[in-house]
Every structure is written in C-alpha cells, then in structure tokens.
Write a structure and sequence with these properties.
The protein is an alpha+beta fold. The chain has helices spanning about 25-30, 70-85, 95-100, 115-125, 130-140, 145-155, 180-195, 200, 220, 260-280; strands at about 10-15, 45-50, 55-60, 90-95, 115, 205-210, 210-215, 225-235, 240-245, 250-260, 290. The chain has one domain: 3-Layer(aba) Sandwich (Beta-lactamase), CATH 3.40.710. The radius of gyration is 18 Å and the shape is globular. The termini are close together.
Length: about 325
C-alpha cells in the first residue's frame, strides 16, 4: 500500500438538491440504491465543514477497509501530542528495525538513524510513509499496538462509531474498517483541531535522502482551493480520497471510497466539491431541509471483497 469536535451521524441537517440530481439517500435505501449518475465508486459523502451538514451521501455507512486513510488519525494524535507539549517538531525520533522493515509505501528511513518529527510528519502526509507512521507511533506511545489503542480511544472520544483501526498505516488487517461518513467527520474534527496540519497536507512533493516523492492527492495541482487531505489504496479497499477545499469562508470535505482507479477518485471528489460550492452560492437562507439518517451506533463488520489483499497501493 502506498497510502495508507465531531459527533455521530444519527442526524444530518441541511439537505439540499444540487445540479445533476445529487440526492441525499436514507441509509435504509442507500446500501442498495443506484445513484442517478454513473459513478465509479462504492461510497461517497460531501460535508460542509463549517456547519457539519452532510450535503450528499451515497452508501455513507458502508463498511470498507480504510487503507492509508488511517494516517489521518495517526497525524491527528501526533498533532495532539505536539499541542499538549509532550513532543516538539524538532524532536529527533529514533528509527527502529520494525519501522524500517514496514512494507508498502515508504519515506525510506533507515534503522538506527534519528529523524526529526517534522520530517516524519511530511513523510506521512506527502509520501504516505508506512515506515514513518510506525516510527511516530513508537516514539509517542512506545509501540504500534499501544498507539493503535489510543487511535480507537480517540474515535470513541469523537463519537465516531463505525470505524475500527488495527494498524497505524492502514495495511490490510482483518478487523479494520471505516465508512465514508466517518472519514468525513474525522477529517472535519482533525482540521478544526489542527488547522496547521494543512500546511503539510498541501505540500505537492517532499524530498528525503535525495529521494523526491509527489503527493498522491493530485487535486492539489488541479485546483488552488484544494489544500488536503489524504489518499489511500489497497487491492482490497480500492482507491480512496478525502479531499478538502476552501473557497471564501466555506470549507467542504469530499470523501470517495473504493473508486475503480485514481482518475475516478479525483474526478468524483472534485465534482462533489465543485457542485457543493456552486449550490452554496445559489442557495438562499430558508431553503434547507432536514433528513434523518439511520443511527450509526454500532460498528458494522467489514464488507467482503473479491479483491486480493496486496499491500502495495497509491
């Protein structure tokens, strides 16, 4: 794999109808509903980050392996620790053999060396470095296992109930899953708590040890309003993208899960963002309604997939 204050989504306010018949679906219908547009993904949502209103949802609670989207939570806890004064950006983090040997996408750190925490953050945000993720987890909590426990505690603290994490980097794990709605809520909470994190997520490239890698979120190069957030891929999960953009005072978050390829995840996320901003400009006060989605109170087991579990991705 190359990538690997919010409340629950039991009530979603602010439904509006957008061009091309983007329709917010009731969860009871969403699991088997056919979207009026031809789309190449299994689940997607669009969230207004300012109001917390979901503007669009397709299969919002469908359980899908998160791949590298887990790194949003890894970085969330990292910036929490910095804010709490437990660590500093210039801390020199030791690289263990376990971190060095972690498979999939890499920052290409070496065992025995020390790397600044800020460099590791860049390696996670831009390179989607699995090795950097393990190094940070070990530095903050002593072990990846202890860090994962804290990740799941953070989800409960945020009342995000349909996601379970088993790895800090998102490599395939049997009981690891998320939903489009949960990822949008997590992204919103992360950006609100740590807006400074976007400085790293919007970097288009990063060079470490003379190895330059490009940010896999190619929307950063397509639209100047896009300033994050994270991509993910494994053969089992498909192609994921959490994209956020700000235009004027409004910030939107689009989540596309299990797209068929990179171009589709980019195209559909950008289309959702554009339609959301366009509709906001056209909608006057008093036009918003209210829609009840089925409560997301209990984790749902991950969906079975016919794909293999190959770890390498983008």
């Amino acid at each position: 794999m190359h990538e690997t204050g919010a409340k629950g989504v039991s009530r979603i306010r602010g439904l509006f109808l957008v061009p091309l018949a983007l329709v917010l679906m009731h969860t009871a219908q969403a699991q088997g509903a056919v979207h009026p547009m031809k789309v190449g993904f299994r689940a997607a949502v669009l969230l207004d980050a300012n109001s917390g209103q979901f503007l669009y949802a397709q299969n919002p609670h469908l359980s899908i392996p998160p791949a590298s989207l887990t790194k949003v939570l890894t970085l969330f806890l990292t910036f929490d620790a910095i804010e709490q004064g437990r660590v500093r950006l210039n801390d020199e983090v030791p690289i263990s053999r376990k971190a060095w040997r972690t498979s999939g996408s890499k920052m290409f750190v070496k065992a025995g060396e020390r790397v600044s925490l800020e460099e590791l953050i860049k390696g996670i945000a831009v390179d989607s470095g699995n090795d950097a993720s393990v190094a940070v987890a070990e530095y903050l909590e002593g072990s990846e296992r202890a860090f994962v426990a804290k990740m799941n505690n953070k989800l409960r603290e945020l009342n995000i109930r349909n996601t379970r994490i088993e790895t800090v980097h998102g490599l395939p794990a049997r009981k690891q899953y998320t939903t489009a709605a949960d990822m949008a809520l997590l992204a919103r909470a992360y950006i609100q708590a740590h807006p400074e994190s976007l400085h790293y997520h919007q970097l288009t490239s990063f060079t470490y040890r003379n190895i330059s890698q490009h940010n896999r979120n190619r929307l950063l190069l397509q639209d100047p309003s896009v300033d994050g957030l994270k991509t993910g891929y494994t053969r089992k999960s498909g192609y994921h993208l959490v994209a956020t953009a700000r235009r004027g005072d409004q910030r939107l978050i689009a989540v596309v899960l299990d797209a068929r390829n990179r171009k589709i995840r980019e195209r559909e996320a950008m289309r959702l963002l554009n339609l959301g901003f366009q509709q906001n400009a056209q909608t006057s006060p008093g036009q918003h309604g209210e829609v009840q989605l089925a409560p997301a109170l209990n984790p749902v087991p991950p969906v079975k997939s016919g794909r293999g579990s190959r770890a390498r991705g983008v």
